[in-house]
Amino acid sequence: MTSSSSTGCSTRKFSSQRTQIADVPVAELARQFGTPLYVYDGAQIARRVDDLASFDVVRYAQKACSNLAIVDLIRRLGCLVDAVSAGEIHRAFAAGYEATGDPPPIVYTADIFDHESLDLVVEHRIHPNLGSPDMIGQLAQRLSPERPNTASEITLRINPGFGHGHSQKTNTGGEQSKHGIWHEEVPDCLRQAQQHGLLVTGIHMHIGSGTDLKHLSQVCGALEKTALQVGPSVRSISAGGGLPTPYRESDEMIDIQAYFDLWNRTRKRLENQFKHPLSLEIEPGRYLTAESGYLVAEIRAIKSMGKNLFYLLDAGFNDLARPILYGSYHPMSVVPTDGARSDKNGGNKGRPTTDLQQVIVGGPLCESGDIFTQEEGGFVAHRELPRAEVGQLVVIECAGAYGNVMASNYNSKPLPAELLIHKGKTHLIRSRQTFEDLIQNETIPK
């Protein structure tokens, strides 16, 4: 990454009505590809990558959105990739990443080695970011017979003893988190690594998703302290991820330049101590893809339950789990009647959608928690949306991270199709799952 840019602290405006995604009519996308439907705006991903160009390495945390076309696009935009499983290593290969290089194109980051991931790391010499002390010995045991008298390079992921996040479930630091090597165990891990001929060349810290600048800055001091414990073998430091994404108009964009400056000062101090350059990495996932993604669904029922009015969609938490998991807020919009498809079952296209009303937005699942407008703890909330009718489209926005990657077949629902709109072209990047796909690996005993 060579240029620099800053997002400042601006906010994003959301509208309760939408007719287009990336200059393509939403109604046309729904007519052609059906609903529910995930749509990604490639230009928005490119803008977010450019925000981070001050960092030496932008390493995409592909768990946020791992469709091959998205990973390939991010590779073409100059980013390297993080993998947290054997499957994600295979995805990185399929998207065009090489196994080795300087800096490593793929880094395997996890708190365990399952057998397949350990096989891949050893076979392809993929750089590992180790989050548990046990991983050091497990890796060394496999490497010793295959690479005698060769020092293999590793990164240590450190839990600094504190964390932060938009939900307790996304907090990845502190005593209640399973992630990382506890900061007090670093000396023992260094002795173990030295004993096994492993060279610690990188330090990584990530305290949670959705953290603010204040909490992110605390990581700098903790990482600097750990790097000094390790010594001059360190050649790379990673700020982790967790950059916040605006889901509400009141949410501010983080000042990327200010965040980079914090880390750059840390990097410079360490360079002065070690007498050699250090590479500064950042590991965004959600930040790169969240705002690019839209879940398009159709209203299939509107009904009153006492004082509550429900819009029930053909998409549910099987398609987007963040609200039920974290109480996450997603902006929503309704496609006006003159931009929506006709409903085969009698939906009326004639009424304008300028009037707003308080509604609860839910899905089709046989599950009381299948509500998109809920707060953490499962408390149902209302959303002010335009008056609508059966057959109109609702767009759930900022759904490009932890959306389709967390989708399931609950209630035997097929996975939705995915589209990428980039440089004026619409690409089908995942076909809608069929019933045959659902049962293809199931058998009835004879």
Compose a concise summary of this entry.
The chain has helices at residues 26-33, 42-51, 68-76, 86-94, 115-124, 134-146, 186-195, 213-230, 256-274, 286-289, 322-326, 435-439; strands at 20-21, 24-25, 37-41, 57-61, 80-83, 106-110, 127-130, 152-159, 181-182, 198-204, 236-238, 279-282, 293-305, 308-313, 332-334, 356-362, 374-375, 379-380, 383-386, 393-397, 417-422, 425-430.
Throw out a few tags for this protein.
eight-stranded parallel β-barrel, 22 strands, 12 helices, single chain, 446 residues, alpha/beta, disordered N terminus
Summarize the structure in words.
The protein is α/β, with parallel strands linked by helices. The protein has 12 helices and 22 strands. The protein has helices spanning 26-33, 42-51, 68-76, 86-94, 115-124, 134-146, 186-195, 213-230, 256-274, 286-289, 322-326, 435-439, and strands at 20-21, 24-25, 37-41, 57-61, 80-83, 106-110, 127-130, 152-159, 181-182, 198-204, 236-238, 279-282, 293-305, 308-313, 332-334, 356-362, 374-375, 379-380, 383-386, 393-397, 417-422, 425-430.
Number of discrete helical segments: 12
Kindly report how far apart the N and C termini lie. 58 Å
Average pLDDT level: 90
The percentage helix is 25-40%
List the helices and strands and how they pair.
Blueprint: E1 20-21, E2 24-25, H1 26-33, E3 37-41, H2 42-51, E4 57-61, H3 68-76, E5 80-83, H4 86-94, E6 106-110, H5 115-124, E7 127-130, H6 134-146, E8 152-159, E9 181-182, H7 186-195, E10 198-204, H8 213-230, E11 236-238, H9 256-274, E12 279-282, H10 286-289, E13 293-305, E14 308-313, H11 322-326, E15 332-334, E16 356-362, E17 374-375, E18 379-380, E19 383-386, E20 393-397, E21 417-422, E22 425-430, H12 435-439
Parallel strand pairs: 3-21, 4-5, 4-12, 5-6, 6-7, 7-8, 8-9, 8-10, 10-11, 11-12, 14-16
Antiparallel strand pairs: 1-2, 3-13, 13-14, 13-20, 15-20, 16-19, 17-18, 21-22
Helix pairs in contact: 8-9
